[in-house]
Amino acid sequence: MVEHGELLYPSLTRVSSHLIRISRDISNHEKQIVEARKCSVKKGLQKFNIECSMNSEANEPYELQLGFGGTSTLDKVGSGGGLRAMIALQGILGELQEQHLLDIVMYLCGVSGSTWCMSYIYEHEEWGKQLSSLEDKLCHKLVNPHRDWNKALKSLVESSKDDTYSLTDFWGIVVVYIIMHELDDHHLSDEQKICKNGIVPYPIYAAVDATKLDAAANQIHSDIWFEFTPHEAGFFNPGEFVDVTFLGSKFENGELKEKKNEMKMTYLRGLWGSAVANFKEDMTVLIGIWDIIKCMYKTLTCILKWKWGNIYTYKYIDLKDKNLTDKTDIQLADASIVINSAYPLILRPERKVELILSFDFSDGDPFETIKKTNQYCEENKLPFPEIDAQNLDKDKDNPGDCYIFKGNGCPTVMHFPLFNKVNCGGNISDWRNRYKTFSLSYPEQDIKNLLEATKKNVKNNTKNILQMLKAVANP
Taking every annotated instance into account, which residue ranges of this chain make up the domain PLA2c (predicted)? Predict the structure, then answer.
């Protein structure tokens, strides 16, 4: 008898070994795009009269990696924070472009609410040139909601028929829909053409293995982290990736058995932004939304089991991770539960990070991500600047707008708390209270005020960023 997947996709089953990649290295697709992006980075640096010194071994310029919440050459790392983080990242990117810094950013990494902004802008080709209009469209969409609940209900019922249905489906189709006012049918693989020629930073989205969240010790291990790029998805430790268009399809020992449709962005937004998945006791958000739609028995079952991010695993006999060889599925959740920034993804040695722009959108301790990342790096023997946690704790209720952490043989980190004494004056607590993480909407003026505050963090520190760029480019 012919397997269902073999009948429908005979050519795919023959080449399915190419759909799964066993390696700690980044993909060839990413390498090619990073190489193309270097041209933009070089031109961007030259605008500021910054020339990279030569790598004597390879006789080529040093790669300057910049990142958001982790970006390479210059990497930009965006933290989580729900709607607040989504709006804040939009403002940060707009001001980076205004200050001619965006072209120098190699990677754009995000968790939770930052991924909502990323998935929004990466629908548009050459979005770096459209950030002003994209900001206007986003503001209009957020304050002028148009929701088609018939379409949402139909989508939810259809999703519930799948064996892997979980609360992530509900969260994406209902909760994220309430916040973003759209059911996004585009796919992550669509972003391949957006970043194909290195025109924009390469995007990396973060999630974590939800089955390992109960043990605190697991949360500083690198094998809990799962990354998504436009080309592939997987655990970078021990190095197990699948073509992103086949994530969720059924595999057996590396052979494709049943091709599933590629996950829609609505589902992925629910997965990336499902921080409530770690708070089994706190059901207030779900209960508040529950009156909107009395869902099926299957959703109730998922709530009782607290089942999130259920995806068929890409089982392969050579995989080192028993989670992928012994289980039929994996469960993924919002990475902000572990570290509210995508540091583990951008700190992979293969990405050669030199300078990280860490824009922190947390509503609590603005240094928690830095301190947790320091612990993570110590546990996983990764180079990271020395952090004086006690000194940072003194500033947590009244932080400045820029902190620089550097050392020998490690990336330089520039950390920018969202709400600080420079852009908020003496009213930091008022700003934090106004922009709660679980807010489903903000008034139009609050959105504009938040955008303005985030832009100040870039504008006021452009000189500091350029100073660090020069130092990293010419060590």
Answer: 12-475
